[in-house]
Amino acid sequence: MAGSLRRRMTTAVFIFAVVFTGISAFAQTGGVTGKCIGPGGTALVGHTVQIERVDIKWTGKTKTNKKGEYTYIGLAPGDYKVTLLDPSAKPLDVQNKRVGIGDPTEINFNIEQAMKEQQKEREADPQYQKQVEAQKQSNSLKQMFDQGRELYAQQRYTDAAAAFEKAVPLAKDKNIPIVLSQLGDTWQKAGAAETNPDVRKADQEKALDYFNKVLAILPNDASVHDRIAHLYGDMGRSADAEAEFKKAADLDPTHASGYYYNLGAILVNKGQMDQAAVELKKATDLDATNANAWYWYGTALMGKAGVKPDGTIDPVPGTIEAFQNYLKLAPTGKWAGPAQDSLNALQSKADLEYKKKKK
């Protein structure tokens, strides 16, 4: 009996010790608690609150109840990062707090207030102000550029140029040559559409000025040299056009065939067939699939054809092959008809007989 009593007393002491120890351990911890409010004072229900220890790797999570409240206890004293997440796990707000022993540390989240505070902080940041100003400038640039493009599409080139002029001081970095190039192209179009020779010359000079400004920024851009070459062609400055096309070809060998073709076409239009044939031959040598180059090469050679004593036409070597190559590459092309007519003419017999006119 005495032994049984001693055993019961020993068990009671043991249970009391365990309970006491648990209470003692719990008394050495803390926790976090709070309420999460969204825009308009609405409770954020079912949102995750993530608790992370700052000094060691540990993370705990809990969710808000129907009132937007949460509680997490049993945290060791220390510094914590507490994050409110939306249902998709996107962070809404973050607070750093030190948790002590005893009652849970109160950490409330008011998203609307947090957003206002963040906005104030951003507005006070000089870097943010620069970004805002840059965005405003970019929006203004786009507005003026779009306006210019719309007027350009309507072929109102002078009005379009005025809009692009307003965009110049707004352009920064890579946008500067884009706006200047657009101005060059617009004034070139204006000159081409102008019937007054003095006004046309003035427009072309403006175009050249803007293209040269682009060239000062991008001296090794083949496309800029190509555009200047076309402008020189419009201005009748064939020698300058030739120099620019050759620069473009040197800078961009991959597209050199196109540049030599453009040069040849300008020379054909100026009636300089011998030099045109030289440049167009370069185009076909570099790209045998350049159908248009073949056609104009044949056209440039046509003027060199002679007539044999029997009256048949004697074309210089390469003339017939040039038209044949064009028809092979572009049988339904723009110049298919003229190419076939030229072949027929080359294969016909010239009428050398003098015929007396009837009275």
What is the overall pLDDT average? Answer: 86
Beta-strand share of residues: 5-15%
Number of helices: 13
Task: Point out poorly predicted stretches.
Answer: 9-25, 350-356
The percentage helix is: 55-70%
Largest sheet: 4 strands, mixed
Please state the overall shape, judged from the principal axes of the Cα atoms: elongated
Task: Provide a quick synopsis of the model.
The chain has helices at 2-26, 111-124, 126-153, 157-167, 175-193, 197-217, 222-234, 238-251, 256-269, 273-286, 291-302, 319-329, 336-346, and strands at 30-37, 48-53, 59-63, 69-75, 78-85, 91-99, 105-106, 109-110, 306-307, 313-314. The strands form three sheets. Strands 1, 4, 7 and 8 form a four-stranded mixed sheet that branches. Strands 3-2-5-6 form a four-stranded antiparallel sheet, with no helix packed on it.
